[in-house]
Amino acid sequence: MNGMPTALITGGTSGIGLALAQRLAGGHCLVLTGRGDGAGLPVDALFVKADLSRPEEAVETVASALRSAGVSSLSKLILNAGTGTYAQADAEDAATIRRTLDVNLVASVLMAHRLAPLLEEGRGRLVLIGSVAHRGSANMPSYAASKAGLTGLARSLRAEWDGRIGVQIIHPGPTRTPMHEKAGYDPGGLEKMFFSADAMADEVARLMETGRPGATVIFGARIRRLLTGKPS
Description:
Blueprint: E1 6-10, H1 15-24, E2 29-34, E3 46-49, H2 55-68, E4 76-79, H3 94-121, E5 125-129, H4 141-160, E6 166-172, E7 175-176, H5 179-183, E8 195-196, H6 197-210, E9 214-217, H7 219-227
Parallel strand pairs: 1-2, 1-4, 2-3, 4-5, 5-6, 6-9, 7-8
C-alpha cells in the first residue's frame, strides 16, 4: 500500500462504516472488513471478507491480509461492526446471545489486542463504535450488554496503553442503517427522527478529530446540524 496512513474499519461495507470509509478515503489507505462481496467500496480500498461471529478466525484472516498487503502500521483501527436482535431477554436463545457478544465484543477485544503493535508503530488510535444503548435498552438486552462491554474495554485499554496508543469510544444515537431490519426492529414513525448514516459518519469523523476519550452523538448533534444547515 502507498505512503498514506492506513485505517482499518470493521463492518466497513455498509451503514456508518461505509460512510466513514468514504470520508477517510482521500487521506488514508483503507482496509475494510465485512461479510459481503465488497461491492461499492471506495476505489483502492482493500476488502477483507471476515465473519466476526467467528472472532478467532476473523482476527487471523485480517492479520494475514495485512501482512500480505505489507501493512506494518495503522493510524486508525475503527471497530464498528455490530449486530443484535430486537427481542425480550427470554426470547433470545444461547446461540443468538453468543453471536451478538462475539461480533460486538469478543471480536473487538481480540482485534484490539492483535493489532495493537501496528497501532503503536503508527502512533495510531483505536476507535470503538458503541451505542447509546450501552446504558441499557428494552428488548435489546444482549446488544446493550455488548456495547456496555465496549465501554469497559475502552477504559481498560486507555489505562493500559497510556502514552502509546490513543483510545476513543463514540456512541452513535439512532441511525438509519440495514441493522434495524436484520435485528427485527421496526421503528415506525420514529425513524424520521433517526440520523442518516452519512450524517452520523460526519459526526463520528468530527469527534475522532477532537481526540476526546468518549462522546455520544444524539440530540445536541442534531440541533447543531440544524443550526448550521447540515442535513440529518
